[in-house]
Amino acid sequence: MLPEKKGLMTGIAAGGFGLAAVVLTVFTEKLLNTGRSIPDIFIIVGITYGLIILVSAFFLNVPDTENTEATVKTDFSVKSSIFIQLFAGIFFRNICRPAGNRKFKKHGGCI
User: Fold this and answer.
1) What angle in degrees, to the nearest 10, is found between the helix axes of 38-57 and 6-33?
2) pLDDT tens-digit readout, 61-105
3) How far is 73 from 77, CA to CA, in rounded Å?
4) Are 13 and 6 in contact (CB under 8 A)?
5) What are the extents of the domains in the chain?
6) What is the 8-class DSSP label of residue 74?
């Protein structure tokens, strides 16, 4: 089903991420209203996600390789310029931004 309907699969995956955020927000809000502490909520959410993943794993199967005509590109390398640019951008944004925030807030602004 995946090679023929890539757009549908991408939409389902993106929708799943969005729906999970909504469900998690409601779930954690209800837990906070019961007076539980933040570490307790992390444990409950972690166990819940672990159980969901464990149950979902039973529905996975190995695809039949005889009927598959889709090719997968394997020429991507960590030495490629696009990977280095993406990695450097994400790395330096996450490392340098907190330091910049502290310096900027001293002057009355926020990022």
Assistant:
1) 150
2) 876 666 655 565 666 666 778 888 888 888 777 666 655 555 555
3) 11
4) no
5) 1-72, 73-111
6) -
Closest to 46 in 3D by CA, of 59, 64, 74, 27: 27
Are the CB atoms for 97 and 111 separated by under 8 Å? yes
Q: For 19-70, write each residue's pLDDT tens digit.
A: 888 888 888 889 889 988 888 888 999 999 999 999 999 988 876 666 655 5
Tokens of residue 81, six digits: 């310029």
The tally of CA atoms less than 13 A away on the side-chain side of residue 23 is 9
Q: Residue 84 corresponds to which tokens in the numbers above?
A: 């280095």
